[in-house]
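Dear Dr. H.,

I hope your travels went smoothly. While you were away I took the liberty of generating a structure for the chain from your last submission, since the lab meeting agenda had it listed for discussion. I wanted you to have the full record in hand beforehand rather than looking at slides cold. The sequence, exactly as received, is reproduced here:
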Amino acid sequence: MRLVIANCSVDYIGRLTAHLPMAPRVLMCKADGSLLVHSDGGSYKPLNWMSAPCSIVEEAPDATQADAGVTALWRVTQTKTGDQLLVTIGEVFSDHSHDLGKDPGLEKDGVEAHLQKLLADQIELLGEGHALVRREYMTAIGPVDILARDETGASVAVEIKRRGGIDGVEQLTRYLELMNRDPLLAPVSGVFAAQEIAPQARTLAEDRGLRCVILDYDEMRGVDPRHMRLF
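The corresponding predicted structure, in token form, is as follows:
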């Protein structure tokens, strides 16, 4: 990746035209060929950009441009559409290149798969006497996150979400309608488990006879949240 901090203006030429006047900006040239133009605001969103596949050709300024303080011209052309970014560069404050290597990708913490494994290992959180039958119990319309049995031996279907909404309640309801047709499983009760449950989802779940359980992810992992506090 090449990062250039410089005074520059940017003109977009293509299906539409746009102009950024001369000002200090960050030019980010990625290894895939894309170019992003950032200011010191606007959060993560660039002011303008050209997505890969594209080519970048650096041109020398003509005499008039050089007299005006232009040091380089970047012509960025989108391979598929032919759209262009013309970056006119004045004073350069910083120009560095870094090889970042292959990115391993984002690993999300606390996703539903983690919650499912933790709850399967701590099935007693559903209530005393509960026992795990299996994770990912397959039905004709998809897998139920957890199939368990309560203290009486009755079947319990558990749907797990990070943030429980109405869609999750509807999903669990469909599973239960199907599972309760199986004489080897019926009667099957439902548990809607999540780190947080929207009030409307809780109302709908309870109206349909589903039990709601809030999962404390830190507690399930054995993490004391007090250790993460500043005060």
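Two observations you may find useful: DSSP finds five helices and twelve strands in the chain. Residues 112-221 form a domain with the Trna Endonuclease; Chain: A, domain 1 fold (CATH 3.40.1350.10).

With kind regards,
E. W.
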